[in-house]
Amino acid sequence: MEEHKVPEKRALEDPTRWFRLDGKVVLITGASSGLGLGFAWALAGAGASVMLGARRVDRLKTAADELAAAGARVDFEPVDVALPDDCDRLVAATVERLGRVDVLINNAGVGTAVPAVREKPEEFRRVLEVNLEGAYWMAQACGRVMEPGSSIVNVASMFGLIPSWAPQAAYSASKAGLIGLTRDLAQQWSGRRGIRVNAIAPGYFASEMSATIPEDRLLEYVRSAGPLGRLGEQRELDAAVLFLASDASSYITGTTLSVDGGTTMR
Questions:
Q1: In angstroms, rounded to a whole number, what is the distance separating the alpha carbons of residues 154 and 131?
Q2: What is the 3 state secondary structure string of 197-234?
Q3: Residue ranges of domains in the chain, CATH in brackets
Q4: pLDDT tens readout for residues 108-117
Q5: Per annotation, catalytic residue among 136, 171, 204, 221
Q6: What does the buried/exposed string (b/e) look like for 214-237 if buried means 16 or more CB atoms within 10 Å of the residue's CB?
Q7: How far apart are CA 198 and CA 245, in angstroms?
Q8: What DSSP string describes 118-147?
Q9: pLDDT tens for residues 32-79?
Q10: What pTM was computed for the model?
Q11: Torsions phi, psi of 55, nearest 5?
Q12: How distant is the alpha carbon of residue 137 from its chain centre?
């Protein structure tokens, strides 16, 4: 009869430690307000040092002061992501002041709703310059200094995956392009450089962009479009960003995570 072996004693481990960002430096664009500022609070709460980038200097300073008062290690630098030199300068400032760049949250973005027959070339180009080209210039600048184990999270949109109910050709094209860019950079950098590149595709959340939509029309859409039938909350998007930024997603790259109440499922 086979002798019964007493299993070795195994200690319980806390899996939430994989979501921690202690010692990591996170650079967030579009971070002066809205979703980007929410990400800064969430990731700083997970232990990260944060560099805030955006165009509105007064709001950046206010945001940085409030985070610092709460105990975060934080700095800020104005940036227009549509300008490659600005992106290089922001990354250089992050390395100089905070020591490195471990995570990039490509959040800066603009949105328009203009019928396709009336949209002016400069209007269309500006959306792509910020939402798509700006994300590329930021990723390129960070990719030059990031070490293996780093992570890039691109903030796309569910309208990069499904048609918008509003006339948003420029916005939808920019976000679909960003999802394609995510896959290509993941292919180029994940194996060779050890930099993971993923995207999130948010549905509707309370933000400056969604605030431009009449509330009754917005609520009518979200109630009918997805099974959860409501706006998302900042904490629900924060959790997705934290997952992709942290070592909890160390075997995930090139993917787009929809955070949309199930809207893209239909």
A1: 10
A2: EEEEEECCECCCCHHHCCHHHHHHHHHHHCCCCCCECH
A3: 20-203+236-258 (3.40.50.720)
A4: 999 888 999 9
A5: 171
A6: eeeebeebbeebbeeeebbebeeb
A7: 9
A8: T--HHHHHHHHIIIIIHHHHHHHHHHTTPP
A9: 999 999 999 999 999 999 999 999 999 999 999 999 999 999 999 999
A10: 0.93
A11: -85, -30
A12: 15
Q: Give yes or no: 136 in active site.
A: no
Residue whose tokens read 């007493």? 6
d(CA 117, CA 17): 52
Q: Angle 169-189/121-128 helices, nearest 10 degrees?
A: 30
Structure tokens at 59: 């709001």
- Which residue shows structure tokens 């239909």? 266
Q: Which amino acid is at 186?
A: A
Place of tokens 């990719």: 143
The contacts of residue 66 (CB under 8 Å, 6+ apart) are none
